[in-house]
Structures are given as structure tokens and as C-alpha cells.
Amino acid sequence: KLCIQLINPNTSLGMTEVMAATARQVAAPGTEIWAVCPEEGAPSIEGHFDEAIAAIGVLQQVKAGRAAGVDGHIIACFGDPGLLAARELAQAPVIGIAEAAMHMATLLATRFSIVTTLPRTLTIARHLLHQYGFERHCAALHAIDLPVLALDDGSGLAQQKVREQCIAAKKSDGSGAIVLGCGGMADLAQELTLELGIPVIDGVSAAVKMVESLAALRLSTSKHGDLDYPIEKPLSGRFAGLNLG
Ligand SMILES: NC(=O)NC1=NC(=O)NC1=O
Q1: What angle in degrees, to the nearest 10, is found between the helix axes of 97-108 and 119-132?
Q2: How far is Cα 54 from Cα 61, in angstroms, rounded to an integer?
Q3: Residue 36 bridge partners (DSSP)
Q4: Which residue's alpha carbon is nearest to atom 10 within ligand 1?
């Protein structure tokens, strides 16, 4: 039996539930999804400032997950905030939903498009493409130009915009697959894949299966080199709790 810690780095419980439901739908019968979010932080993550705030909450959750002995951690925000710091802290694999979705897209198509939320998060997605080495695989990036929490307001407007952007991207980008660029879009991928007839990939689902694969292969975060545990030192104030000791 596996336990995967699904961390929504923002503090919006509705989004956590959407991701958790999708993760549980694709998880193998023996896999438990433990969905969490930081006790304090940003209700949505829409820029570098929000990501810096969210990273601390991610680390606190990863520490709790490590103590609970989870088999993997998923950072379920398309900026993958705190990913490498989390890998230093963790023993189990740590997978960001952006890298998971991008990796999966490259297995299925020579070019993929990204559909994300606000135009300013396009820049963050571009940074990730560069960091992960996927720039030449990404044909184009699009934004629905709505805030992240528009996906959580029950109106269905954001979901409709995602659908429209995916249809347009399929027509215009010359890409064979589409990556959904927000954790709050997790529940849209399967329906859009059927409707568009091309792989529309959600990073939450992709990350769940990647953690399961790594666990099955007995592979985990390398502690040799820069992802070794953090150097022990007296962290002060609110950060004292982040010590591994
Ligand atoms: N590009 C994004 O929409 N990033 C995100 N902000 C959040 O709060 N969750 C996401 O996935």
C-alpha cells in the first residue's frame, strides 16, 4: 500500500479537493492520497512573490509527510514552488505538476502547448521550460486571462475558457499535446482529451502515476550531492520547526 502526499501549495480548500478527487480517481487501488495544504500562506499563487510565500508552506508539509513516512510528495501548483528545496528535505520522490505534465507530454508528442491562467504566469511557465530543458518541446503558451480562483468559483466560466484555448491551440500551434497549466484544471483533462482527440495532460494525474512508478522501481530522491538533506544549523523563530533534527 502506498501513501502519496498531495500538497496544494495555496490555502484554498476547494482547489485541494478538486485535485484530491482527480488524484484518487487515477491512483492505483493500493494507493492512498493524503491531500494537504499549508495552514498559512496565499489563497492562490499567481507570481514569483506568491511562490516565495508558498514555498515555506510546501516545506512544512513535506517535513510532515517525511515524518509520516509517505512514499512520495506532489507539489500541486503549476509553478512547482519549492521543488528543489523540498527534494533536499524529502527522502521520498518529490514531483511538481508542471514537470510531470511536461515530461508526459514529451512522451506523446514532439511539441506541446501549455494553457494556463494569468498572462503573468506564462513567464513562470517559460522559466520552468528553461529549467527543465523543455523549451524546444513547447510550441506555444496561452493564458485564459482569469485568476486562479476563477476555477474555484463555481461559475464554469474559467473551465469554458480553458476548453476554448485548448481548441484554439490544437488548431494553431502545430502541437500534438496540451499541458493544463494549473492544479485547479486537474478535473478537465480527461474530458478534453476525449473531445479534442489529442492528449490533454493534467500534472496532478501525471505526478500520481510517476510517484507510483518510482515506488515500484524502488527509486527515490538522490541524496548524493545538492539534494542531500539540508545542512544542520540553528534556524530561528518560525523556521525552527523546519529543522530535520
Ligand atoms: N499557473 C498557475 O495557475 N499556478 C497555480 N497557482 C495556484 O494557486 N495553483 C496553481 O496551479
Answers
A1: 70
A2: 11
A3: 7
A4: 77
Give the dihedral sign, CA 20/6/136/144. positive
Residue whose CB lies within 8 A of the most ligand 1 atoms, among 11, 44, 153, 180, for a mutation test: 44
Interatomic CA distance for residues 227 and 55, integer angstroms: 16
Say how many Å lie between the CA of residue 181 and the centre of ligand 1.
7
CA pair distance 132, 80, nearest whole angstrom: 11
- In tens, the pLDDT along 70-80 reads 999 999 999 99
Residue 116: how many other CB atoms lie within 10 Å: 26
Return the sign of the alpha-carbon dihedral for residues 219, 223, 227, 233: positive
pLDDT surpassing 80 at residue 221: yes
Residue with cell 502519496: 4
Given a contact cutoff of 8 angstroms between Cβ atoms, the answer to whether 192 and 178 are in contact is yes
For 221-228, the CB contacts below 8 A with 24+ separation are 221/87, 221/90, 221/91, 221/92, 221/93, 221/94, 223/91, 226/84, 226/88, 227/84, 227/87, 227/88, 228/88
Ligand 1 neighbours (beta carbon < 6 A): 10, 44-45, 77-79, 116-117, 121, 148, 181-184
Task: Please tell me whether the interface predicted TM-score (ipTM) of this complex is above 0.85.
Answer: yes
Q: The pTM is what? A: 0.98
Closest atom of ligand 1 to 8 CA is 9
Residues in the chain: 245
**Ordered alpha helix ranges (H), 118-177:** 119-132, 157-172
CA of 98 to the centre of ligand 1 (A): 10
Going by alpha carbons, the residue nearest to atom 7 of ligand 1 is 45
